[in-house]
């Protein structure tokens, strides 16, 4: 049966092409034409502005599916999904930005928010990689914060597109921030938005070569690289190793936690310092009859809540993905996937974050489908919905704005790092 299924699977290997696409932008309330509005394909370097008649023309629409974004001062950003093989002239109506309750909204933001949360925001949004040091946000004053003390959730907002200069990769990025949430209690980060890339110009050939080399280095082993490999059913050819990972509840830790809880209750009842919990979460026993158990208890409590069971068998592409239609592949799996890219070593910055002195000779990440929904992938490596997949490990650390490439990026043929 597996052999028959393999025969009927087909994989789309589309030839890249570019087409023309045009439209007109109106104000939704007055039906007047809107000149000088920004029109671009999200997460690409393809874009333009409307002329004095509110019209726009994109002559190099690349192959694939993209979010078309239209933004203009005084209006809410507009988003729609456009597919390269279904291009039609479009009319877009922008809604005026709502101004009511503006004072109430402003007052709800954290006072001196950037001084309190700016560093944490940069760590989460820009990242910790070596490239992050040369990646700056020019208009940080536009970023406002709210903090939910009870849930320990930090939210960020921006009243204008963020202007990001990535000197490491040679891009200026305008980023319409849609949402940003960092749950400190669970160490979960989610942010979304619409970036538009403009390649930086330089007359220095050496600098241009360094940008191209760093872009290639960033691309290899990235989520974009992996998704393109999945689309073409070439994960092994592209040097990725994929294995199934199962996580089960750590029953022994749960048992020890119950013992600790009971001892804490005993402390409260008799006033004796039998059990103490240190500021770092460590467990200490004060009385001699429990001293032999203290070391073991501390070790178990330091373990993760779940234990990982790795199925040490390489998965072929057609066991986790299949063709959906002529332009889209589907990635679908249960539990977790461990993904190893052996062509590159970990950056030393990542090893240090993992409290290790040495970097591994490969990059390891895990992914999971958190909403029990498959991921749809196009040839350019874009996948949707991004909120349905959670990355951990190297990708969770590395895939930030400082290492982001546009979806129309094409690595030089037959050239590796």
List keywords for this structure.
417 residues; alpha+beta; Immunoglobulin-like; 24 strands
Detail the topology: elements first, then pairings:
Blueprint (H helix, E strand, L loop, with lengths): L1 H7 L9 E10 L10 E4 L5 E3 L5 E8 L2 E7 L6 E6 L6 E5 L7 H6 L5 H13 L9 E3 L5 E6 L4 E6 L3 E5 L4 E13 L4 E12 L5 H15 L3 H10 L7 E10 L1 H20 L4 E3 L5 E3 L5 H11 L4 E6 L9 E3 L5 E3 L4 E6 L6 H6 L9 E7 L5 E3 L5 E2 L4 E5 H5 L19
Parallel strand pairs: 1-7
Antiparallel strand pairs: 1-4, 2-3, 2-5, 5-6, 8-11, 9-10, 10-12, 11-12, 12-13, 14-17, 14-20, 15-16, 18-19, 19-22, 20-21, 21-24, 22-23
Describe this structure in words.
It contains 9 helices and 24 strands. With 417 residues, it is α+β, with helices and mostly antiparallel strands. A hairpin with a 4-residue loop joins strand 11 (162-166) and strand 12 (171-183). The radius of gyration is 25 Å and the shape is globular. Residues 1-16, 277-283 and 285-290 have low confidence and may be disordered.
Mean pLDDT: 85
- What is the domain tally? 4
Beta-strand proportion: 25-35%
Class from helix and strand fractions: alpha+beta
Number of helices: 9
Overall strand count: 24
Distance between the termini: 40 Å
Largest sheet: 6 strands, antiparallel
Binned, the helix content reads 10-25%
Query: Spans of 5+ residues with little confidence (pLDDT < 50)?
Result: 1-16, 277-283, 285-290
So what's the overall shape? globular
Radius of gyration: 25 Å
